[in-house]
Specification:
It is built from 13 helices and 10 strands. It is of the alpha/beta class and 273 residues long. It starts with a strand and ends with a strand. Bound molecules: D-glutamic acid.
């Protein structure tokens, strides 16, 4: 039976991806799950992020989903490969789990003229080196500079992203990135939470530097994937429905989620175990 596409993040960030999926692929049904009770993932170990993400993927499969998008760079960096290679073959080889790093690295090099790009992400994403490794396949010769921004997700999750206190940490990480290479001309927000900080980041962005966000890139890539895999497209239900789940309390989730998603959200609590 056709089922919704699962969209996962540690918390609210994946909603910035879902917003674009809904724009570009409005006919599909989506189930969003935020593991808010255990967010943030960005500073957690490889093993922990893998275990939490696998639990979430199994939860989606329990809901009948055939296709799950890890709308989280940290989970994509630390858990996706293991899930695809070690878990899916035994759980169900016909189901698919896709991430956000691959589609982003397929196009990121097209944005730069200096061939120097900056990647701003969580500590986990940066330490995994997933971006430099993947970008080397698609754009050899690209110089990739990474900056971990461990304070950004907590600022965002706590609703401080538009407050004056956020300026300090935005400026600090931007300066640290440009200290690595002054002529970076393209910055990727390699964390699905960061679009909430866009206004602040732009206020510290040197002239002529572009800011790239992942939502429309991931949505365009999924649209292409579904055209190339009609068998999977048929397994995804198409009634334009949305459902939201959180591992924490629904009331605060609903309040915060509308900021990320741009419209009112009704959520239910779920346990993963
Ligand atoms: N939104 C997640 C990402 O894209 C990370 C948030 C977290 O640290 O949990 O990396």
């Amino acid at each position: 039976m056709p089922a919704p596409i699962g969209v996962f993040d540690s918390g609210y960030g994946g909603l910035t991806i879902l917003k674009e999926l809904k724009k570009q692929l409005p006919h599909y049904d989506y189930i969003y799950l935020g593991d808010n009770a255990r967010a943030p993932y960005g500073t957690r170990s490889f093993e922990t992020v893998y275990q939490y993400t696998l639990e979430a993927v199994n939860w989606f499969f329990g809901q009948g989903c055939e296709l799950v998008i890890l709308a989280c760079n940290t989970a994509s960096a630390k858990a996706l490969r293991n899930i695809q290679q070690l878990n899916l073959p035994t759980i169900d080889p016909n189901k698919r789990v896709l991430g956000v790093i691959r589609p982003t690295t397929e196009v990121l090099g097209n944005f730069t003229t200096t061939q120097k790009v900056g990647i701003m992400g969580t500590l986990g994403t940066v330490q995994s080196n997933s971006y430099p490794i993947e970008l080397a396949h698609f754009f050899p010769g690209l110089e990739v500079y990474q900056q971990a921004c461990p304070m950004w997700v907590p600022l965002i999750e706590n609703g401080e992203f538009d407050q004056p206190g956020a300026d300090y940490f935005v400026k600090q990480y931007m300066e640290a990135l440009f200290k690595q290479a002054a002529d970076i001309d393209t910055i990727l927000l390699a964390c699905t939470h960061y679009p909430l900080l866009e206004a602040k980041i732009r206020s510290f962005l040197p002239a002529g530097v572009q800011l790239v966000q992942q939502g429309d890139i991931v949505a365009a890539s999924l649209a292409k994937y579904l055209v190339m895999h009609p068998d999977m497209a048929q397994k995804c239900s198409q009634n334009g429905h949305l459902a939201f789940f959180t591992t924490d309390e629904p009331a605060p989730f609903e309040k915060q989620a509308s900021l990320f998603f741009g419209q009112k959200v009704e959520a239910k609590h779920t346990d993963l175990a």
